[in-house]
Design brief:
The structure holds two protein chains of two kinds. By secondary structure, chain A is of the alpha+beta class. In chain A, 45% of the residues lie in helices and 12% in strands. In chain A, helix 9 runs antiparallel to helix 10. The chains are: A alpha+beta, B alpha+beta.
Chain lengths: 230, 166
């Protein structure tokens, strides 16, 4: 592993495994190429890991920036300095939002499986330097009339642990309970089920369901949670 | 009498007036989300009878990435008779529950038209209340029973599922 001792206050990353050159220099495909990567600041300050190559986002100076990783990854298992790449960087929450929205629109949300959107949000939340939950909540509220987006977000947040996604996750799910679309309401209920928290029980016991199948589902979850939490 | 089991997302399907539903007017989401084919084939699990639906749920959850509440419809032989579906045995070699591997079936050689026929079959199941929801709690219980009885090795489950069971 090469090191440049003159690097200070730079973000650089080390590939924890060796991707094939084909993976890094060919055109991006729909398939997610996920390569374990560690991100360091100042050599020793470990700040993040597990960024998928396709995400093309890294953290620099507390901001999400966009960088063309393809051009950086020809040398594997080496520290790659990004400090001189300022002209290539763009800081934009809007870019991040647009990318996420596109991802959700193209994603498949199947119960029992992890979506690309979930992996994306997991990466963002894992990075303590970015308030991913606040950002996600703002995306949620801005797209409350877009059922595909909010179902996707509910699907994603339902798979995080209660405390990790708190409090924004619960606020989003609570607001979704009044949505006119029944699938949205069901996804919100699923989130409370997945969280399995005593607060979930409190919420589920307090909501009204006019649809019998949804009502039956809520009753079953209440029964399940009362057993699990007792 | 053996029945065939298919996972669907209940929220995407009509909830009433099944006898008045025209397949041509069925929402596209129901078909694209719940009847997604691979190589023109649709995956199903066969169980001996309606009392053995847990077996299908076990097959589905043991091969999944995480435990989420799921819905399944169960299809009887009568439902299929009016259609000329090609149903093939397709061994699921990587299924963690070894004794269920040969219970996997495909409705194969599907076309645009015959996929609509499958949707009709699902509507028939819903009309006859042949749908069951397995909650997360129930699925965990099914997995634990399979592990305790030796049918399933924990290490063959996805890590997220293992964390959930812990």
């Amino acid at each position: 592993m090469k090191k440049d001792n003159n690097l200070k206050n730079n973000i650089f990353f080390v590939l924890n495994e060796t991707p094939s050159l084909d993976q890094v220099i060919t055109e991006p495909t729909k398939e997610d190429i996920s390569i374990s990567t560690s991100f360091y600041k100042d050599e020793n300050e470990y700040i993040s890991n597990m960024f998928s190559i396709n995400n093309e986002y890294i953290i620099k100076n507390d901001k999400i920036v966009y960088v063309d990783l393809k051009s950086k990854l020809i040398n594997t298992n080496s520290i790659i300095d990004t400090s001189n790449d300022v002209p290539n960087f763009e800081y934009s929450d809007e870019n991040l939002t647009n990318k996420f929205i596109s991802m959700v629109n193209e994603d498949i949300f199947e119960f029992g499986y992890i979506s690309n959107s979930e992996r994306f949000i997991n990466d963002l939340i894992s990075n303590s330097q970015f308030d991913a939950k606040q950002w996600l909540e703002s995306v949620f509220m801005s797209n409350f009339d877009n059922t595909k987006i909010i179902i996707g977000i509910l699907h994603v947040i339902s798979h995080f642990k209660y405390k990790i996604i708190s409090p924004q996750g619960q606020v989003m799910a609570l607001s979704a309970l009044i949505h006119k679309n029944i699938e949205v309401r069901e996804c919100a209920i699923r989130a409370f089920e997945n969280w399995g928290h005593v607060d979930s029980l409190r919420v589920l016991k307090s909501i009204k369901c006019d649809e019998k199948w949804l009502f039956d589902y809520v009753q079953q979850i209440i029964s399940d949670l009362e057993s699990e939490l007792s | 009498m053996p029945i065939l089991v298919r996972k669907i997302n209940q929220a995407k399907w009509p909830k009433e007036h099944y006898d008045k539903i025209l397949i041509d007017n069925l929402s596209a989401d129901a078909i694209t989300s719940c009847l997604r084919t691979s190589l023109n084939a649709l995956s199903l699990w066969e169980v001996n009878d309606v009392t053995r639906l847990d077996e299908a749920a076990l097959a589905l959850v043991s091969s999944a990435e995480r435990i989420d509440t799921i819905d399944v419809v169960f299809i009887e032989n009568n439902d299929l008779q009016q259609f000329n579906f090609v149903i093939e045995d397709t061994l699921m070699e990587k299924l963690p529950v070894v004794d269920l591997r040969d219970k996997h079936k495909d409705i194969s050689k599907l076309t645009y038209k015959t996929l609509g026929d499958v949707a009709s079959v699902v509507i028939t199941c819903l009309h006859n209340n042949r749908i069951k929801r397995f909650t997360r709690s129930k699925l965990k219980s099914i997995l634990r029973i399979a592990i305790d009885s030796g049918r399933l090795k924990k290490e063959e489950l996805n890590k997220t599922i293992l964390d959930d069971l812990a």
